[in-house]
């Protein structure tokens, strides 16, 4: 029996794509959510001083991107074809660029600069990022399915996580699932609905703990 434990803070954050994949695969795992006080004790014992951590049968893997790829490789969220696999990687890198900009704006401590970053994100750069992602989606089956191939991959998980969870909460301060920012990007809007309707995704969304982001 495989024993899996995922350790992260009490938010969706970088651990949520991992939670999505594990739930979609139907794997039982310990979803350990720690407080800031617990983190102070745990941090010195970690390899790189960061979370999330994935523990599988006593072996611990650090760094979110490494964990995403490991889970994707182990549980069918990467295509077998090398070119398609690289395409998934490229879309994930694009998602990471977009997400980093969202996070920089959301967590900027200087209030004036924070507002400037958010306005630039909302009114300018987000539209460029969304156009790039929609073009990627359209290139596969006219945008009516998934980003690469005929089944859900890590690219779909990552983009859904950004569009459904992180952008609404961090950039707009709105509820997850808000899609007003997707006006004019109909393929992405339909993609979010399609992914959200997957039975195991819907089940996770219904029962996951409420958190600010």
Automatic annotation (TrEMBL):
Domain called GST N-terminal: residue spans: 2-79
Pfam families attached to this UniProt entry: GST_C_3 (PF14497), GST_N (PF02798)
Keyword annotations: Coiled coil
BP term (GO), one: glutathione metabolic process
UniProt domain GST C-terminal: residue ranges: 81-213
Gene Ontology molecular functions: glutathione transferase activity
Source domain of life: Eukaryota
InterPro entries documented for this protein: Glutathione-S-Trfase_C-like, Glutathione-S-Trfase_C_sf, Glutathione_S-Trfase, Glutathione_S-Trfase_N, GST_C, GST_superfamily, Thioredoxin-like_sf
Coiled coil: 100-127
Protein name listed in UniProt: Glutathione S-transferase 1
């Amino acid at each position: 029996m495989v024993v899996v434990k995922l350790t992260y803070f009490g938010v969706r954050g970088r651990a949520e794509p991992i939670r999505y994949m594990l739930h979609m695969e139907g794997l039982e795992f310990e979803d350990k959510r720690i407080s800031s006080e617990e983190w102070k004790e745990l941090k010195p014992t970690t390899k790189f001083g960061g979370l999330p951590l994935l523990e599988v049968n006593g072996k611990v893997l650090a760094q979110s991107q490494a964990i995403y790829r490991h889970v994707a490789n182990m549980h069918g969220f990467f295509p077998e074809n090398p070119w398609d696999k690289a395409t998934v990687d490229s879309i994930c890198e694009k998602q990471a660029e977009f997400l980093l900009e969202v996070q920089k704006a959301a967590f900027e401590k200087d209030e004036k600069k924070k507002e400037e970053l958010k306005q630039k994100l909302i009114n300018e750069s987000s539209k460029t990022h969304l156009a790039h992602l929609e073009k990627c989606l359209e290139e596969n089956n006219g945008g009516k399915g998934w980003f690469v191939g005929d089944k859900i991959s890590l690219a779909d998980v990552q983009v859904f996580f950004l569009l459904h969870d992180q952008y609404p909460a961090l950039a707009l301060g709105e509820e997850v699932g808000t899609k007003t920012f997707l006006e004019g990007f109909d393929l992405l809007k339909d993609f979010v609905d399609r992914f959200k309707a997957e039975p195991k995704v819907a089940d996770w969304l219904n029962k996951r703990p409420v958190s600010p982001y």
